[in-house]
């Protein structure tokens, strides 16, 4: 083995994002190598370590308004951290009012653009948008046969939301007979799915499932039917079919006029995620979350006088990182065993907050809230940051009680607020759409307000008398049921709950009552892990009895 004196330290300039990453890429070569061999070795290593930049090629039309088409695709891919090249199939004159003109690019020149990019630039995924004529579809299919790529995403753009035609009806057979068979996914909206299926009526989610299955027969590996235009639906439901299973993907319907380009963006984000190596369903979910976030952040944009405005793909550049960092997405079932800490109890038993959090997670807690009424702010942030690390490791959401500032500082998954804390609507504005917000409610009116304010769940209680929270009114099981039945939100019960009475709570069998939140029954005990395990097994037993129809009291 060469001694250190016979080694040269040869830093290679290789793609790296941080100084630390650059340092870890320094390469040692023996001094004894001839300069020529050294040069050859270095270039071989450089080639081997070269970072391949994920690359999406979009084949679509230009939107002069910048909200949809090629412009949306490039911005979306950039926002997802992916390189995007573009083959332009048509130039459109459009704005927020509608499409004023379409100027198709000659097919031979589309072919030339495809050749230029595909022959040279290592494209991973091709995404298609506006393909104005059957001839363009044929040119594209031929190019893809000559230059195969890892995946093909087809957004069968036919008519703009303003009702203007973007591709001739004769393209329908080109899509169905030629392009779909090569596609990894096709992403029609309701109108496009209906046109592809000869005018089939699509009015419900089950119609969408049928449509997805029928379109799958044309040959694509996966189909996503987008339900953004489904009338009477309070959320944004898309149906994904992978040839075996149909999935309903629910998202929140963002109230905004700035929706121009959502279809192009969704398909581009799917392509971008695929180019990074994500599996298809994960790519679709990530794309849907991106679009939902972008719509949220763009609600206040005012551009143009028409009915449909553009949104901001690059919202992440302007938002503080804690607002957009992907945290744990809220799942109502996370409320099943909700552990709420108490520093008084921890110090009584001589344990740190981190040990306490680790113990309840090991015992089976499904979500944790740090409820610290007296801790100094600096200590609270440090403790919360340490607890966040533990929770992240175990994929358990961590919420902060009352203190939005602490939640922001430690990038917690969310905040729980009560009726005298900051209003949930303000918390939502500060935390952004991706974070979890819980609100304490004792009445139907409070539950309605929590829903309107954008809360994710309700904490309802005290169900039984408790000495943990002073002067707290007890609402009983009846009060709990009343709030649950009046709200669409998932509910967690709190107050005086433990191993001895958790069955009474979950045994009510109310559908949106998802779990129990517990302080003293876990933290004012010698073995927190053991107590959490016991409570979890009680809850699981009740749940299985309830789902079999037996209510255990
Ligand atoms: C899950 C859960 N539900 C209710 C509460 C109570 O919150 P709040 O009414 O703000 O009272 P304090 O906890 O702040 O005393 C909660 N913390 N968690
Ligand atoms: C925070 C809170 N909110 C309503 S009751 C309560 C206290 C619950 O504590 P315990 O589980 O010890 O009864
Ligand atoms: Mg509070």
UniProtKB/TrEMBL annotation:
Bilayer-spanning residue ranges: none
Major location (coarse): plastid
Pathway(s) it belongs to: Cofactor biosynthesis; thiamine diphosphate biosynthesis; 4-amino-2-methyl-5-diphosphomethylpyrimidine from 5-amino-1-(5-phospho-D-ribosyl)imidazole: step 2/3; Cofactor biosynthesis; thiamine diphosphate biosynthesis; thiamine phosphate from 4-amino-2-methyl-5-diphosphomethylpyrimidine and 4-methyl-5-(2-phosphoethyl)-thiazole: step 1/1
Limits of the Thiamine phosphate synthase/TenI domain: 337-522
Compartments (UniProt record): Plastid, Chloroplast
Annotated Pyridoxamine kinase/Phosphomethylpyrimidine kinase domain residues: 63-307
Enzymatic reactions: 4-amino-5-hydroxymethyl-2-methylpyrimidine + ATP = 4-amino-2-methyl-5-(phosphooxymethyl)pyrimidine + ADP + H(+); 2-(2-carboxy-4-methylthiazol-5-yl)ethyl phosphate + 4-amino-2-methyl-5-(diphosphooxymethyl)pyrimidine + 2 H(+) = thiamine phosphate + CO2 + diphosphate; 2-[(2R,5Z)-2-carboxy-4-methylthiazol-5(2H)-ylidene]ethyl phosphate + 4-amino-2-methyl-5-(diphosphooxymethyl)pyrimidine + 2 H(+) = thiamine phosphate + CO2 + diphosphate; 4-methyl-5-(2-phosphooxyethyl)-thiazole + 4-amino-2-methyl-5-(diphosphooxymethyl)pyrimidine + H(+) = thiamine phosphate + diphosphate
Cellular-component GO terms for this entry: chloroplast
Protein name, as recorded: Hydroxymethylpyrimidine/phosphomethylpyrimidine kinase
Lineage of the organism: Eukaryota, Viridiplantae, Streptophyta, Embryophyta, Tracheophyta
């Amino acid at each position: 083995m060469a001694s250190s004196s016979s080694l040269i330290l040869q830093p290679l300039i290789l793609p790296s994002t941080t100084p630390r990453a650059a340092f870890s890429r320094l390469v040692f070569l023996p001094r004894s190598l001839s300069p020529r061999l050294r040069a050859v070795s270095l270039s071989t290593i450089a080639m081997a370590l070269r970072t391949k930049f994920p690359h999406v090629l979009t084949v679509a039309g230009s939107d002069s308004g910048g909200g949809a088409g090629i412009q949306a695709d490039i911005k979306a891919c950039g926002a997802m951290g992916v390189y995007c090249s573009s083959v332009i199939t048509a130039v459109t004159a459009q704005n927020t009012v509608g499409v004023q003109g379409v100027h198709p690019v000659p097919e031979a020149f589309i072919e030339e653009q495809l050749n230029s990019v595909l022959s040279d630039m290592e494209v991973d995924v091709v995404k298609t948008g506006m393909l104005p004529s059957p001839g363009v579809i044929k040119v594209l299919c031929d190019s893809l046969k000559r230059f195969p790529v890892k995946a093909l995403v087809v957004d069968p753009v036919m008519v703009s939301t303003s009702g203007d035609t973007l591709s001739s009806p004769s393209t329908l057979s080109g899509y169905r007979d030629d392009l779909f068979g090569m596609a990894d996914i096709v992403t029609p909206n309701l109108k496009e799915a209906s046109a592809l299926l000869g005018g089939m009526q699509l009015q419900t989610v089950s119609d969408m499932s049928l449509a997805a299955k029928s379109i799958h027969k044309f040959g694509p590996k996966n189909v996503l039917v987008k339900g953004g235009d489904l009338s009477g639906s309070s959320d944004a439901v898309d149906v994904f079919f992978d040839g075996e299973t149909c999935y309903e993907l629910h998202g929140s319907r963002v109230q905004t006029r700035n929706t121009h380009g959502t279809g192009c963006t969704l398909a581009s984000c799917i392509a971008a995620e695929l180019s990074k190596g994500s599996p298809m369903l994960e790519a679709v979910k990530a794309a849907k979350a991106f679009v939902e976030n972008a719509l949220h952040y763009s609600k206040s944009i005012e551009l143009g006088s028409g009915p449909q405005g553009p949104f901001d793909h690059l919202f992440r550049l302007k938002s503080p990182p804690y607002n957009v960092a992907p945290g744990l997405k809220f799942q109502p079932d996370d409320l099943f065993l909700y552990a709420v800490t108490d520093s008084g109890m921890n110090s009584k038993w001589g344990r740190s907050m981190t040990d306490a959090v680790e113990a309840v997670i090991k015992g089976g807690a499904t979500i944790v809230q740090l409820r610290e009424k007296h801790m100094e702010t600096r200590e609270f942030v440090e403790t919360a940051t340490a607890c966040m690390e533990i929770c992240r490791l175990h994929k358990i959401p961590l919420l902060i009680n009352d203190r939005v500032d602490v939640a922001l500082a430690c990038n917690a998954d969310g905040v729980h607020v009560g009726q005298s804390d900051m209003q949930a609507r303000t918390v939502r504005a500060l935390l952004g759409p991706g974070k979890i917000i819980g609100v304490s409610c004792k009445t139907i009116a409070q539950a309605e307000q929590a829903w309107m304010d954008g809360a994710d769940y309700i904490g309802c209680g005290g169900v039984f008398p408790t000495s943990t929270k002073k002067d707290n009114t007890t609402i009983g099981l009846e009060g709990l049921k009343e709030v649950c039945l009046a709200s669409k939100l998932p509910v967690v019960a709190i107050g005086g709950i433990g191993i001895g009475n958790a069955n009474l709570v979950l045994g009510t069998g109310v559908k949106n009552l998802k779990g129990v939140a517990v302080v003293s029954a876990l933290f004012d005990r010698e073995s927190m892990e053991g107590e959490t395990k016991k409570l979890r097994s009680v809850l699981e037993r009740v749940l299985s009895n309830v789902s079999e129809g037996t209510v255990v009291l």
